[in-house]
């Protein structure tokens, strides 16, 4: 990773990902840059296969997966979809966490919980709870948390680990509190 300072933990690591076009069979190599490399190292360190999608030009990548929260929700739901987005130009890693249940809500349902979501979001140490519109008249609650790695010389993989843990903790707490009437 030539673009990094000489004292960076990832300096001189040359790493690329090969993608094969299903139609033509043509292989294309994408450079794996610092934020994506930290994300990939954390993900593979958890014992997972590489499923990170690197965009053409190598300046952005995504990773999405389903995770089981360690909570006992009244409705029995503890699954979330996690979506990491790496922006190499800004050296920014953002994590979005979406609950599988209750999933999409109507405008009336969203209005009923919006004050609780705002209150819970204000109490979060890191990140925010958001209500986002998913389709024409459907809304969903998500956790959004990010970290800028610009200027970070050592500990990028630990930043990913901590970002994920804070996001999961925040979503777990929010789901438990939102499930209580």
Briefly characterize the structure:
By secondary structure, the chain is α+β, with helices and mostly antiparallel strands. Helices cover 29% and strands 31% of the residues.
Q: Describe it for me?
A:
By secondary structure, the chain is α+β, with helices and mostly antiparallel strands. It has 3 helices and 8 strands. The strands form 2 sheets. A 6-stranded antiparallel β-sheet has the order 3-4-5-6-8-7. β7 (128-135) and β8 (138-148) form a beta hairpin. The longest helix has 24 residues, at 156-179. The radius of gyration is 18 Å and the shape is globular.
Topology readout:
Blueprint (H helix, E strand, L loop, with lengths): L15 E5 L6 E5 L2 H12 L7 E2 L5 E9 L10 E9 L4 E8 L7 H17 L4 E8 L2 E11 L7 H24 L2
Antiparallel strand pairs: 1-2, 3-4, 4-5, 5-6, 6-8, 7-8
Helix pairs in contact: 1-3
- Which ranges are low-confidence, i.e. pLDDT below 50, for 5 or more consecutive residues? none
In what order do the strands lie side by side in the largest sheet? Answer: 3-4-5-6-8-7
Task: Write down the secondary-structure element order.
Answer: EEHEEEEHEEH
Cα-atom radius of gyration: 18 Å
pLDDT averaged over residues: 85
**Biggest β-sheet description:** 6 strands, antiparallel
What proportion strand? 25-35%
Helix content: 25-40%
Q: Which secondary-structure class do the elements indicate?
A: alpha+beta
DSSP summary, beta strand count = 8
Shape: globular
**Termini separation (Å)?**
51 Å
The number of helical segments is 3
